[in-house]
Design brief:
Elements lengths: L1 E8 L4 E10 L2 H21 L7 H21 L2 E9 L6 E8 L4 E5 L6 E6 L6
Antiparallel strand pairs: 1-2, 1-6, 2-3, 3-4, 5-6
Helix pairs in contact: 1-2
The protein binds zinc ion.
């Protein structure tokens, strides 16, 4: 879903832009997070039989699994591919975006390296 955003810079200037909003449904996040956590535990248990590797893999793989599971579970929505004109340098840029909690996002212009604040300008009801 494409949503309008407002991009601000530290000088107070702002420019409109558009971004892609990806929403992850809780019914899909749950099983995916569980699969990652269990997968990490199983992979860690299996690595116990591999010489030398087991020193690290037995705890690192379950830890990685839990970390990835937590990431999937906590990412309810993402705001990505933020296309705008940088209010600092007036160049057309695309910001990568990422995990979106609903408020403001901190980004950086890839061209002039200025800090940018990205905010959704309209909120549709789901
Ligand atoms: Zn810029």
């Amino acid at each position: 879903m494409s949503v309008p955003v407002l991009v601000r810079t530290d000088t107070g200037k702002s420019k409109p832009g558009t971004a892609t909003l990806i929403e992850h449904d809780v019914s899909k996040r749950g099983p995916k997070a569980a699969a990652l956590a269990i997968g990490g535990l199983v992979a860690g248990a299996c690595s116990a039989f591999i010489p030398v590797v087991h020193f690290v893999a037995t705890w690192a793989l379950p830890l990685l699994g839990f970390f990835l599971a937590w990431r999937v579970w906590s990412t309810a929505s993402e705001l990505v591919r933020i296309g705008t004109t940088c209010p600092g340098c007036d160049k057309t840029v695309e910001l990568p975006g990422g995990q979106y909690g609903g408020g403001r996002m901190e980004e950086q212009c890839p061209d002039c390296m200025r800090p940018l604040t990205v905010e959704r300008t309209s909120k549709e009801s789901d």
